[in-house]
């Protein structure tokens, strides 16, 4: 039987409810705490420390101290630790998935998928650690030799979101530690428990005391964020979350010119051309739109369908979505869990009501599922979407499928690019030339062709425009945590 509650954990010590500084589990200096809630039941699952600036500064100092030793480890030593950590994630996948489902709401199947995805970053960066090096540069002056080498930047702050609390920590910290940086993690207040479980496993994998530190906070997030941005011992900050907060962090980091990676909001177009196979389009759309209840940074937000197949696609998609079971992530057969917090339901309802006001036609769902006890929303499909609507400008971050109609390929590109952000995009077409043309024309960081998932540890992940800058994963991911030093040698005497 599938596990349902914390009492089903096989390794009880993976459920930690304190912050983690210099390899010790600690309370906040102020003694304050906050509660972590199961979004499927609204029941409290844990009480964790509400840490503030003082606690954060201690975590940064511990990481800085550890860096003096950690930077001298070899890439092979670091790779071994990361591989061991990856293996431990897979060994304890059931427990990690259960903790994740209980605090985030996603289904156990998706939670296991996230653990596997998280482990893949650790394995990937273990490999990259040993294959990242400088170069010998051809010289213009025969009396010189020039070479470059890569060095870890120092302490890295890793700020993870609530929608992928495990994978986003390993994507950031895996790269940082592979590079030889030490880290301070700040999980989202809604989902600290998955991060704390990762701290247990990372330590078990042999990481040096102080190489990872976890600061938990919900209500003092602005204070903690500011300390991380302004503390001069931190040399690099990586954030995944909203564009609003990303801009604030960039402003706060400007004072110390800290290097930033920002993976922010998107508004992904999902473009279905007349020549698409309907089954491929529906299957990809369900994944791109409804995975994690629509709460993914690359979630398809504007489903744009060419006129010739608009109604056919809408009917096929509606039939498919009607089959999907909504419920608690721990229940068998559930495809769509609750949203992670109350604000998400409010935001989705604001988008649905705004679409209705401007002529949108709700053909499925359209309301919260009040009797279910958590933050549940009916899977919703809206036709006749137009440029006037809120969803056109802002990501809905919920299981709300907004269907727009377009006429030509040129129109599709123009509409898709008429947007302040540019993270992901999806296109569905049987034409290879069109897939190239459209991919090249879209102003985004990632394009999926005939599929609904853009996630792979070996593929660089990130956006353009107000979706931020920097890349995570791929060969680029580790470079974000390294500096290049050049050495110029006089060989004349
Ligand atoms: N890119 C992503 O993966 C992602 C993740 C979460 C939210 N979002 C977007 O943001 C919208 C709103 O979500 P929300 O209500 O959680 O967003 P929010 O803007 O309140 O918070 C986003 C994240 O930033 C952190 N945060 C907030 N204030 C901070 C500060 N001053 N310093 C440091 N960190 C801070 C929060 O802990 C959270 O993880 C969503 O609907 C979605 O559009 C995107
Ligand atoms: O939501 C942010 C990341 C999602 C992913 O990597 O698939």
UniProtKB/TrEMBL annotation:
GO terms for molecular function: succinate-semialdehyde dehydrogenase (NAD+) activity. The keyword Oxidoreductase applies. Its EC number is 1.2.1.16. Pathway: Amino-acid degradation; 4-aminobutanoate degradation. GO terms for cellular component: cytoplasm. Keywords: Oxidoreductase. It catalyses: succinate semialdehyde + NAD(+) + H2O = succinate + NADH + 2 H(+); succinate semialdehyde + NADP(+) + H2O = succinate + NADPH + 2 H(+). SUPFAM superfamilies: ALDH-like. One of its GO terms (biological process) is gamma-aminobutyric acid catabolic process. The keyword Transmembrane helix does not apply. Residues 25-486 form the Aldehyde dehydrogenase domain. It is an enzyme of class 1 (oxidoreductase). The active site is at residue 263. It comes from the Eukaryota. Belongs to the aldehyde dehydrogenase family. PANTHER family: SUCCINATE-SEMIALDEHYDE DEHYDROGENASE, MITOCHONDRIAL. This is succinate-semialdehyde dehydrogenase [NAD(P)(+)].
